[in-house]
Design goal:
about 80 residues, globular
Length: about 80
Amino acid sequence: MGNFISGIMFSTASWAGKSDQMNVNEAAQNMVTVTEAKQPPDETAVTLSGVIVRKTHKHHFELKDRSGEMGIAWILTYAAR
């Protein structure tokens, strides 16, 4: 049995071109399936929900939902306090 995950996915262009808060706000409005996430317009932040079915590398996983599977990378960020 896999772990359920809901998270935000950013294209490289959107990550670099907008503030973190802008990306999070945009992604919150764009809940998509795996199939839809494979074809978003450039610079689109989205939210995915699914089950992690396997770890493929140190921070890389396969995510599955009702529409299919895709590879994701878990990126951790830390804020200085």
